[in-house]
Write a structure and sequence with these properties.
Elements: E1 2-6, E2 9-10, E3 16-20, E4 23-27, E5 35-39, E6 49-51, E7 53-59, H1 85-102, E8 128-133, E9 139-142, E10 149-151, H2 160-163, E11 176-180, E12 185-188, E13 196-201, E14 204-209, H3 220-232, E15 239-243, H4 251-258, E16 263-268, H5 271-280, E17 287-291, H6 294-298, E18 306-309, H7 318-326, E19 332-337, H8 340-352, E20 355-363, E21 373-380
Parallel strand pairs: 4-6, 15-16, 15-18, 16-17, 18-19
Antiparallel strand pairs: 1-5, 2-3, 3-4, 5-7, 8-9, 8-11, 9-10, 11-12, 13-14, 19-21, 20-21
């Protein structure tokens, strides 16, 4: 079915919402306020939503910009190149508020303006990119929700160093991950044998399995550490839990702040990340890396004042939140989120268990995409 609709609002996942004959339509590549012609897939009338295809934009809005990348619209890597960085930040702010209201049932939380990296343009920020290889042996990206490939000569959101790696002559059927550390660029083609790469900033130095367990934005590690340290307000002697710790991004600077009379335990389930965390914390005798499931570890944890949690996109589960609540000396949790929906869900559970929710700081660390990071501190009410 072909129809003309008005775009109503942003939605999570890089889509916008429109309606037609009572059915909710999810659209990509459009902006609220635009009038567009869409193709709606044939579906049973009982199904109240559909992913429609935009045929043409009949009435664009004034803030639409020309996408800088020639592959935008075909390549599935970016969602928002038709919006300026300023408008992307506004869009993410609206989505965060919407998720807190719809999922978390909050109407009184403070959401701060979306933080951007200094001099953010949305281009040249990725220090890690993963490509498929076409039948012709050229690096390629997958189209949106498809296994079809589009060959890429240059990825505008990747750094110059990544783009300098040859795009041809690769073995078809394999993925290629190109990773830029602080000193070198590595190419990873075998997921079983992954070398380590080093990252450095003013807070420390980390050995990381190339291609995993590290933020892709070149400024993201520094920004995240700043936000976490600000919210935890760590003092000498504090005893801090770092849950879903990865390679110890937060555990290392926290260990420096608590000092030798403090304690840091970094809990990570993945074996490869844990082994790197052991190396990254080796010089701090008061910091320990533990290879364990977080929920299992918390069943016997004791004696911690503060915690930082950086869970996967699925967020925390109820058992983890309840275990944190039951730790008698724990007064504060800093939650680092990569999904507004699961963050809203988890904050509702924290609130229902008697925690006070602080200001939420969204961070645009994946420009041109629908991904949004956020940091928030929750405190026990006495």
């Amino acid at each position: 079915m072909i129809a003309t609709v008005e775009v109503l609002r942003y939605a999570a996942g890089g889509n916008c919402v429109a309606k037609h004959e009572g059915r909710v339509l999810f659209l990509r590549g459009v902006i609220p306020g635009e009038v567009v012609t869409v193709e709606i897939p044939d579906q049973p009338s009982a199904k109240r939503y559909a992913l429609a295809t935009v045929v043409q934009i009949d009435k664009p809005v004034a803030n639409r910009v020309a996408p800088p990348c020639q592959y935008f619209g075909s390549c599935g890597g970016c969602d928002w190149q038709h919006l300026s960085i300023t408008d992307q930040a506004k869009m993410h702010f609206e989505v965060m508020q919407d998720q807190l209201f719809r999922i978390g049932k909050f109407d009184n939380l403070t959401v701060l303006p979306v933080r951007l990296a200094e001099h953010e343009t949305g281009l040249g920020y990725r220090t890690r990119s993963r490509f498929a290889v076409s039948d012709a042996g050229n690096l390629a990206m997958r189209k949106f929700h498809s296994n079809d490939l589009i060959e890429i000569d240059n990825c505008l959101i990747s750094t110059e160093e990544l783009n300098a790696v040859t795009k041809s002559g690769w073995e078809p059927g394999h993925d290629v991950t190109i990773v830029q550390g602080s000193r070198e660029v590595l190419v990873v083609t075998d997921r079983e044998y992954v070398p380590e790469i080093e990252y450095q900033n003013q807070y420390g130095s980390w050995q990381v399995p190339a291609g995993d367990f590290w933020q892709v934005h070149k400024s993201a590690p520094t920004i995240l550490i700043e936000e976490v340290l600000t919210r935890l307000d760590i003092a000498s002697g504090d005893r801090v839990l770092d849950l879903y710790a990865g390679v110890g991004l937060f555990a290392q600077p926290i260990a420096k702040q608590v000092g030798s009379n403090g304690k840091v335990v970094a809990v990570e389930f993945d074996n490869r990340a844990h082994r790197s965390a052991v190396k990254n914390l080796a010089k701090f005798s008061w910091a320990q890396a533990v290879n364990s499931d977080v929920a299992k570890y918390l069943k016997t944890a004791a004696g911690f004042d503060k915690a930082v949690v950086d869970p996967p996109r699925s967020g925390l589960n109820s058992s983890v939140i309840k275990s944190l609540t039951n730790l008698p000396e724990l007064t504060q949790v800093c939650y680092v989120s990569c999904d507004p929906g699961t963050l809203a869900r988890d904050l509702r559970e924290f609130a229902d268990l008697g925690w006070q929710i602080g200001e939420i700081q969204p961070m645009l660390l994946f420009p041109m995409t629908a991904h949004l990071e956020a940091v928030v501190s929750v405190s026990k009410l006495s």
